[in-house]
Design goal:
Blueprint lengths: L9 E3 L2 H6 L7 E5 L2 E6 L2 E6 L3 E8 L5 E7 L4 E7 L1 H40 L8 H10 L1 H6 L11 H16 L1 H18 L1 H6 L7 H8 L4 E6 L5 H14 L8 E5 L2 H15 L5 E4 H13 L4 E2 L6 H15 L3 H13 L13 H10 L13 H12 L5 E2 L19 E3 L4 E6 L13 H17 L3 E6 H5 L3 H11 L9 H10 L2 H19 L3 H9 L4 H25 L1 E2 L1 H13 L9 E4 L7 H12 L5 E6 L14 H4 L1 H5 L2 E6 L1 E2 L4 H11 L11 E2 L8 E5 L3 H15 L4 E7 L8 H7 L3 E7 L8 E7 L16 H6 L9 H11 L2 E9 L6 H8 L31 E6 L2 E6 L8 E3 L8 E4 L2 E4 L7 E3 L8 E6 L2 E6 L13 E2 L4 H7 L3 H5 L1
Parallel strand pairs: 8-18, 8-19, 9-10, 9-17, 11-16, 14-15, 17-18, 20-21, 22-26, 23-24, 23-25, 25-26
Antiparallel strand pairs: 1-2, 2-3, 3-4, 5-6, 6-7, 12-13, 13-14, 27-28, 28-29, 30-31, 31-32, 33-34, 34-35
Helix pairs in contact: 2-5, 5-6, 8-9, 9-10, 11-23, 12-20, 12-22, 13-22, 21-22, 23-24, 27-31
Length: 979
């Protein structure tokens, strides 16, 4: 029987009620299709029938009644001034209208509730992991239900079947993704229990709880962050086995990818032996690319020999460069590159400190065409100009007259032309006679005046150049003009002679290595030469970028021609061509699940290939195991941000963490983890160690001799280790490899092996010894800039200083099970070692003492450059301390006259840092010299060491009395007393 329709209701409050009745905020109301419309002088308010809770109540008044509308959210809206004769009818009408609306509304909703329930039973049946995409689509489809079903009394408006269906879906509609997470958690727990026997036995040791959870979770994209030694390979095997045993995939629907051939072979062998499966595909990215090409083209491509041998490729490029040098245009371009672009130009005025400037000079190894190290880019350009013009020069020679001043230093002009008796000074000033920010302008300008006056006094010829001339692009032109006016004859060296010299110094071969590196990165980038030049134009050193690109172009064309002529391809061709075939749909992927090992080594191109395969099957799954803490291959194109920002690159992601390591103990883990997490952009993880010990497990061996340090470490290991204990000797560069034969004879019970740190990735040993932890371009970290043309082709560099080198040091330390020995020269310790010492990491710093070992890390900062440390040196005049940044910084101070130790400035004194020595040296307040006790006609006094009788420069400062004993005690710190 059809229900009677409800007629619209309306009511307007009388004028008297509006004046005197309570609760008369609204002067009229009317029912509309889906609710009630209230009116007042201030506007309207619309109330949905769905928003009304227990209905409309009547509150009786003396003259007028009040209608109280109770809303679902607890609010009560009262409309006063209701005529008593009409109030009951209005109340009943309003309640009838809203109840009839609800009944009809939910009757209409019933089919949708039933449909959503059917889909929910299918999608969320508890037999599969609920992926975010499926959850999101279901929630989106029934978003209107979620709003409509919030009423508490909804059950009484629905048919029995729909009410039952509602009970199933209501928790999901109300709680959304939280509900799915609870369902998934329950599913994972059930699966782990169901496959307990499998997880217990699939590897030699039962999988950990986190490994099992990672194997079962089946989001569309899964990232497993596996710390060093936490069993990533076991997790890969467990995942593949679980997918097959749970019926989620057949073996032929699974693809496992590794980066190295050996890793893929080991994975394949373990799949066969542990799972007994032959039909599961295990490939490297390169072999996958080759397979895709073969499937599309009908024949497997031939791989050029250079693809697998980087030394062969580098030799080919070098030979090609030598061949191209027969062409006069190429020869001229190459000579021009070395003359003007071999070093990166950056104005000295852009540096904030002397140390920052010195770091630029050192990292870029700014040398002249003759191989000499100079102190600025502009000096290098001047030196190269003189050499190119056949003008003999000496760099920073002693001036022909000894003009030692108060600082007791000999004047050394920048250049001297011995054939003409001409000196050249290059002044670091701009057109306004201002110095860079880190130079004391007053003293520098005074020095300029003194130098000019000196040349005038001794009648020597001086030519001046200035920084601003380089910025204006007229430096060498101005110098050329002045030299010609001074009668200097130019005899320009022919290109052949210049190239002979460049070859002699190995500069051409070094440049060939750069071109060989460019070759791989350029091909992987997908750029054209035009595109590379366009990118280079955006660089601040754009002329250098363009010059390098033009020299690279014929090398690239010759290389590509060789590949075409031999009908071969290289590894970059394999990946790029495979991507094209996959994205064009010419290759159809049979894989439902892709598992990637060592994912932190992924490059943009390889990630693109994976995405292309996944896109062909919307229901496919990706499972990646890696560790952003161990991403160390940016120089080959690896991009750590793909791991750090995994979800942004791939989409919906479940992240699991393997945080229990079975390799290294807690003390190694504490040091290594704290060190790598100084870079806050690394994904935070807390790695727990299965092996827990009490004592520190990282030792610092301070010596300037690698053999002494290695012998000391091996001696301790030999005394404490079991027979056949393994020892990995690591270094940042292979040239640091020691002669292990002698050590193998001496320590026969130890298994010794040398590797570079990069090669040691994936390896482990009982003990690790790390060599070469010093500052410099071949230190650890190496202080050497990457050529900017390579930076254009590489993934963007991280902002954090030495970010990848920090991860590499983490890799070095975490190869060890029991103990790590770090060998460094304390006088030039690397920044990494300084951090370990200065920030008081839990390491042993005084384990090795005596002859051949150093007492402490040099820690007296150079007060001149602010970047180096004062380290002990010897000369024919005795011991002294010089800056570790020498020869860039020539600052020196005398050593303690009593014990030879370092002197540290404290107030107006220099105090010997040796706590067993009482030497104190007063500082002259006028010139910074040393005040010494002297005898005069009126008794003893303190006089400055820079006093020179009858000399042009002399400091005459004297003092009658200085209390040295009080100075010594006043310089002591609380730490000194505690010690």
């Amino acid at each position: 029987m059809k229900k009677p329709s409800t007629s619209p209701l309306s009511y307007r409050t009388g004028w008297l009620a509006a004046l005197f009745a309570a609760h008369s905020d609204y002067d009229s109301f009317s029912t509309i299709k889906d609710g009630v419309l209230l009116n007042s002088g201030d506007g309207q308010r619309r109330i949905s029938h769905l928003g009304i809770g227990k209905g409309v109540a009547l509150e009786s008044g003396f003259f007028w009644d009040v209608l109280a509308i109770y809303l679902e959210d607890g609010e009560i809206i009262r409309v006063g001034g209701i005529n008593k004769k009409k109030s009951l009818l209005l109340q009943a009408g309003l309640n009838r209208a809203y109840r009839q609306y609800l009944s009809e509304f939910y009757q209409r909703m019933a089919p949708e509730i039933d449909d959503s329930s059917r889909q929910a039973r299918t999608l969320f049946d508890g037999k599969r992991y609920i992926r975010k995409a499926a959850a999101r689509q279901w929630l989106k489809s029934y978003r209107s239900l979620a709003e409509a079903l919030k009423r508490k009394d909804i059950q009484r408006f629905l048919p029995d079947g729909s009410a039952q269906n509602l009970r199933l879906i209501q928790p999901i509609l109300i709680h959304g993704y939280d509900a799915f997470e609870r369902l998934n958690a329950s599913y994972v727990d059930r699966q782990i229990e169901a496959f307990k026997t499998f997880f217990d036995s699939v590897e030699s040791n039962p999988l950990t709880a986190n490994q099992r959870r990672a194997c079962v979770i089946d989001e569309q994209h899964n990232l497993v962050l596996a710390g060093a030694g936490t069993g990533k390979t076991s997790t890969m095997i467990g995942r593949a086995g679980y997918l097959i045993k749970a019926g989620h995939a057949k073996p032929e629907q699974i693809l496992m990818l590794a980066f190295a051939r050996k890793a893929a072979e080991e994975m394949d062998e373990r799949i066969r032996s542990k799972l007994g499966i032959e039909s599961l595909t295990v490939k490297t990215f390169h072999s996958l690319g080759k397979h895709i090409i073969a499937q599309v083209e009908g024949i497997a491509p031939a791989i050029d020999k250079m693809a697998e041998d980087e030394h062969l490729r580098a030799r080919y490029v070098d030979e090609e460069v030598q061949r191209l040098l027969q062409d006069e245009l190429y020869k001229s371009r190459l000579v021009g590159y070395f003359l003007y672009y071999s070093n990166p130009y950056r104005s000295v005025f852009k540096f904030k400190s002397q140390g920052e400037y010195y770091q630029y000079i050192q990292e870029n190894d700014i040398r002249t065409l003759q191989g000499g190290l100079v102190q600025s880019y502009e000096e290098c350009e001047i030196a190269n100009f003189l050499y190119r013009q056949g003008v003999a020069y000496e760099y920073e020679p002693n001036y022909q007259v000894n003009t030692a001043g108060p600082d007791y230093r000999v004047y050394q002009p920048d250049f001297y032309l011995p054939d003409y008796g001409i000196y050249i000074e290059h002044f670091a000033v701009n057109e306004h006679n201002q110095t860079p920010p880190f130079i004391d302008q007053k003293s520098y300008l005074e020095g300029m005046v003194w130098k000019r006056a000196t040349h005038q006094k001794y009648q020597t010829r001086l030519i001046e150049t200035y920084c601003y001339q380089k910025q204006q692009g007229i430096l060498t032109q101005s110098l050329e003009q002045q030299l010609k006016q001074a009668g200097v004859a130019f005899r320009p060296l022919p290109n052949n002679e210049l190239l002979r010299q460049l070859n002699q110094f190995g500069q051409v071969s070094k440049f060939s290595q750069l071109l060989a590196q460019m070759l791989c990165l350029f091909k992987a980038s997908g750029l054209t030469i035009k595109g590379l030049v366009s990118l280079g134009k955006q660089h601040e050193d754009h002329e250098r970028m363009k010059a390098a690109a033009f020299l690279f172009e014929p090398i690239y064309e010759a290389y590509q021609k060789r590949l075409r002529d031999s009908e071969t391809i290289d590894f970059d061709d394999m990946i790029v061509r495979a991507i094209e075939y996959v994205e064009a749909g010419r290759y159809r992927s049979p894989y439902s699940y892709i598992l990637v090992d060592e994912f932190q080594d992924i490059s943009a191109n390889r990630a693109r290939l994976v995405k292309g395969l996944l896109a062909q099957n919307p229901d496919s799954g990706l499972f990646c195991v890696g560790d952003d803490w161990q991403s160390i291959y940016r120089f080959t194109g690896s991009d750590v941000t793909i791991t750090k920002e995994f979800e942004r690159h791939f989409g919906d992601t479940a992240i699991s963490v393997l945080d229990l390591t079975f390799r290294f103990n807690n003390k190694i883990g504490d040091v290594a983890s704290r060190f790598v997490m100084q870079n806050s952009t690394q994904i935070a993880k807390r790695i727990q160690s299965h092996a827990v010990i009490e004592q520190a497990a990282v030792s610092l061996v301070k010596t300037n001799s690698d053999p002494v340090g290695l012998d000391a470490a091996l001696s301790v290991i030999d005394a404490n280790a079991d027979d056949e204990a393994s020892v990995l000797v690591l270094a940042r560069f292979n040239f640091r490899k020691p002669d292990l034969a002698q050590f193998k004879r001496r320590y026969s019970k130890l298994k010794l092996q040398f590797m570079s740190v990069h090669a040691s990735k994936g390896k482990e040993a009982d003990y690790v010894v790390v060599l070469g932890l010093e500052k410099g371009k071949h230190g650890f970290p190496p202080e050497k800039a990457t050529h900017p043309v390579l930076e254009l082709l590489l993934p963007p560099a991280e902002v954090f200083a030495h970010a990848e080198e920090r991860r590499l040091f983490y890799v070095a330390m975490t190869r060890a099970r029991h103990h790590v020995y770090l060998i460094c020269d304390a006088n030039k310790a690397s920044d990494f070692v300084r951090e370990l010492v200065d920030r008081r990491y839990e390491i042993r710093v005084d384990e090795f003492t005596g002859e051949g070992f150093q007492d402490k890390i040099a820690d007296i900062p150079c007060n001149e450059c602010g970047a180096g440390y004062m380290v002990p040196r010897d000369s024919q005049h005795g011991s002294f301390f010089g800056c570790s940044q020498y020869p860039l910084c020539t600052n020196t101070v005398t050593a303690c006259q009593w014990c030879g130790g370092g002197l540290r400035e404290k107030g107006r004194f220099r105090v010997c840092e040796n706590k067993r020595c009482d030497y104190v040296e007063p500082i002259c307040p006028l010139c910074g010299g040393k005040l010494s006790l002297r005898k005069g006609p009126y008794g003893q006094f303190w006089g400055c060491s820079h006093f020179r009788k009858d000399a042009e420069f002399s400091c005459n400062h004297t003092e009658k009395f200085i209390d040295l004993k009080a100075a010594k005690y006043s310089s002591l710190t609380d730490e000194d007393y505690i010690t």
